[in-house]
Design a protein that fits this description.
The structure holds 2 protein chains of 2 kinds. Chain A folds into 2 domains: 1-34, no CATH class; 42-106 and 176-294, MetI-like (MetI-like fold, Orthogonal Bundle). Chain A contains 14 helices and 2 strands. Chain A has helices spanning 2-10, 12-41, 60-67, 69-103, 106-117, 124-135, 140-147, 151-158, 172-196, 200-208, 213-242, 245-249, 257-265, 271-294; strands at residues 45-46, 53-54. Chain A has a two-stranded antiparallel ribbon with strand order 1-2. In chain A, a hairpin with a 6-residue loop joins strand 1 and strand 2. The longest helix of chain A has 35 residues, at 69-103. Chain A is globular. Chain B is of the alpha+beta class. Chain B folds into 2 domains: 5-226, Rossmann fold; 237-336, OB fold (Dihydrolipoamide Acetyltransferase, E2P) (Beta Barrel). Chain B contains 11 helices and 18 strands. In chain B, the strands form 4 sheets. A 6-stranded mixed beta sheet of chain B has the order 6-7-8-3-9-10, with helices on both faces. A 5-stranded antiparallel beta sheet of chain B has the order 13-17-14-15-16. Chain B has a 4-stranded antiparallel beta sheet with strand order 2-1-4-5, covered by helices on one side. In chain B, a hairpin with a 2-residue loop joins strand 4 and strand 5 (66-67). In chain B, helix 4 crosses helix 5. Chain B is elongated and about 80 Å long. Classes of the chains: A mainly alpha, B alpha+beta. At the A-B interface, helix 10 and helix 11 of A face strand 6 and helix 3 of B.
């Protein structure tokens, strides 16, 4: 035992290798290799007559993806939803995370952190189906609107072209609500972590130099929370882009990227198109991160 | 003349702790005022009350004759140099310095010009485009100073500003701060736990202990005539005799005697004149260069120290740890203490 300890103490690189080899093997082979195997599939195509995958490098599948109106619509629909969900999550999370990180203390803080994470301990499917009940035509939300005499407002909302529908549970509004509910913790936690790292003396210094609270928030708190917002928005954005359960349980009948991947690789057996669809979120996240970097979102890291 | 800062019976209480306990004092315009004390003595809380980061539970804080007890920090003509400098990490040095004018609505050209001027003043003219993370501790300290001075405050508050710097840099900055204060004529309030710093820089020093001011006086007065046992120990590292020990030594009242006023004699040497003698045993001898500190356990009680010059130590060569010695000092060198 002592001899082994001495051996590694004298050779720090061996020690580091011992620590890092298992996770790197996992990351390198199981994770990255399978990801690239999947992505490679997107450069094959399916033969229309035999329904067999033709294993020759080609961009035909991508051509199909960007030229077919239905496919483009799916991408646009999903991206629009992901952007809307991300913005809503950021707007709801910012005041809450600010309170959790800067004002709450002791029991209140513990209560809020547990409260934010508690929903994640429940099955994802249970939550989605529960939301379908809540949003249904005879569900509790419609009932509350009814009791408050606001049924007209709900109906007007559901009559909105594009995002409305016969009931909340079968409209994009309902789907949006479920997405925001599901991914909110993924926005709150990184944001709160970023805000916790801001030393209190920076806020005092800002006030000391003559900044009113709103100016301090704009010039000091917000820029320093941006890395947290960026991290959180990568979660909410990518989770929305890839999800296939929420769009299939709640909301209007139009396909989303995740559903398309599921359908293409399962029922339709078109693995190349499924792979091409799953490249879309990866590319979009890369684009999003490079824009965020250009705007200096990670400068404070 | 209206006082730059005035405390009138100010108390700040956190739960059971009286961080500041019925404190009253005033600071004259243009004065270099030090608040000295150990941690938790109320000096930093007092500074926060002046800056407006905290509000008093009782009493009033006045700035320039105006009661500002409930005025927020951004409406006070006071700026602060923070202990951790509190530079904004997402801004360049120039943006940091220009922050004050910026939030007060000064146009970009004007505030950039003023920020460059301030950077020149603290000799950092070339570093405006850097980020705070790219600077050394001493440079950050200067940026914090420039940023706090750009609004032309009437009072500059400094919260242990040199605490994080090494000794040599600290001494240089002490001289620089003092000359800067003279040049600008601004009132400086300087919080520190280092009595050397307070004594060497300040016009007057308030010694804090347990939320109260023990003594407020000029440095020389504080050193030569400490009013209480706490001040004698904290400021002068003096030996203190309480009432019981003083009586055993044949003196009526409690007193303090500084280490450099005490001589060490062998146990058998006969005394002379009116000097006071106290017998004891040597516990330790610490070499400090020009002088050595002899720690002696008195037979009458109390661990005292005497500062003996290099010359004196040579004459005491045969004495060491465990030796029986006498401490002696002129009766007039002892400073009587209150209570």
């Amino acid at each position: 035992m002592r001899a082994a300890s001495t051996f590694f103490w004298r050779r720090p690189y061996w020690y580091l290798a011992l620590l890092l080899v298992p996770p790197l093997l996992w990351f390198g082979t199981v994770y990255l290799a399978s990801l690239f195997a999947l992505l490679a599939q997107s450069f094959y195509r399916i033969d229309d007559f035999t329904a067999q995958v033709v294993r020759e490098p080609t961009l035909a599948t991508y051509q199909l993806l960007v030229t077919q109106r239905a496919n483009v619509d799916i991408v646009l629909r999903t991206v629009t939803m992901a952007i809307a969900v991300t913005i809503a999550c950021a707007l709801i999370a910012l005041p809450l995370a600010t309170y959790m990180a800067r004002y709450a203390s002791g029991r209140m803080k513990a209560f809020l952190y547990v409260g934010v994470m508690l929903p994640m301990w429940t099955s994802y499917l249970v939550k989605v189906y529960a939301w379908r009940q809540l949003l249904a035509k005879e569900g509790i939300i419609a009932w509350v609107f009814d009791k408050l005499g606001l049924t007209g407002l709900l109906d007007a909302l559901l009559a909105t072209p594009g995002i409305g529908g016969p009931s909340l549970s079968s409209s994009y509004i309902g789907m949006f609500l479920v997405f925001v509910y599901m991914w909110l913790p993924f926005m709150i936690l990184p944001m709160a972590a970023a805000l916790e790292r801001v030393p209190g003396s920076l806020l005092q210094a800002s006030a000391d130099l003559g900044a009113k609270p709103s100016q301090t928030f704009r010039s000091v708190v917000l820029p320093l929370a941006v890395p947290g917002i960026a991290a959180g928005s990568v979660f909410t954005f990518s989770l929305t882009l890839g999800d296939y359960i929420i769009p299939s349980v709640v909301g209007a009948p139009g396909y989303f990227i995740g559903m398309m991947v599921y359908v293409q690789q399962g029922v339709a057996g078109n693995i190349p198109l499924a792979a091409a669809f799953s490249v879309v979120p990866i590319v979009l996240i890369f684009v999003y991160l490079s824009i965020a970097k250009r705007f200096g979102a990670f400068d404070a890291l | 003349m209206t006082a730059a800062i005035e405390f009138r019976g100010v108390s700040r209480i956190y739960g059971e702790v009286r961080a500041v306990d019925d404190v009253s004092f005033s600071v004259e315009p243009g004065e270099f005022f030090a608040m000295l004390g150990p941690s938790g003595s109320g000096k930093t809380t007092s500074l926060r009350l002046v800056a407006g980061f905290d509000t008093p539970d009782r009493g009033q804080v006045l700035l320039d004759g105006q009661d500002v007890s409930s005025t927020p920090p951004y409406d006070r003509n006071v700026n602060t140099v923070f202990q951790d400098y509190a530079l904004f990490p997402h801004m360049t040095v120039l943006e940091n310095v220009a922050y004050g004018p910026r939030v007060r609505g000064v146009a970009t050209d004007e505030r950039t010009r003023r920020a460059r001027e301030m950077l020149e003043l603290v000799q950092l003219g070339a570093l405006g485009e850097r980020r705070p993370a790219q600077l050394s501790g001493g440079q950050r300290q200067r940026v914090a100073l420039a940023r706090a001075l750009i609004n032309h405050p009437k009072v500059l508050l400094l919260d242990e500003p040199l605490g994080a710097l090494d000794l040599k840099l600290r001494e240089e900055m002490q001289i620089e701060l003092k000359s800067l204060q003279k040049k600008l004529g601004i009132t400086f309030v300087y919080v520190t736990h280092d009595q050397g710093e307070a004594l060497s820089m300040a016009d007057r020093v308030a010694v804090f202990n347990k939320g109260r001011i023990e003594q407020l006086a000029a440095p020389r007065e504080l050193y030569l005539r400490p009013a209480t046992a706490f001040v004698a120990r904290f400021v002068g590292s003096a030996n203190v005799a309480d009432a019981a020990l003083a009586e055993k030594l044949g003196i009526a009242a409690p007193f303090a005697i500084r280490a450099e006023n005490i001589s060490v004699l062998g146990a058998s040497v006969a005394g002379w004149g009116d000097d006071v003698f106290a017998a004891g045993a040597v516990v330790a001898v610490q070499f400090h260069g020009a002088a050595s500190r002899w720690q002696v356990q008195l037979d009458a009680g109390g661990l005292w120290s005497a500062l003996v010059s290099e010359e004196g130590s040579r004459q005491l060569a045969e004495l060491g740890v465990g030796s029986r010695v006498q401490l002696t000092w002129p009766r007039a060198a002892a400073v009587p203490l209150q209570g």
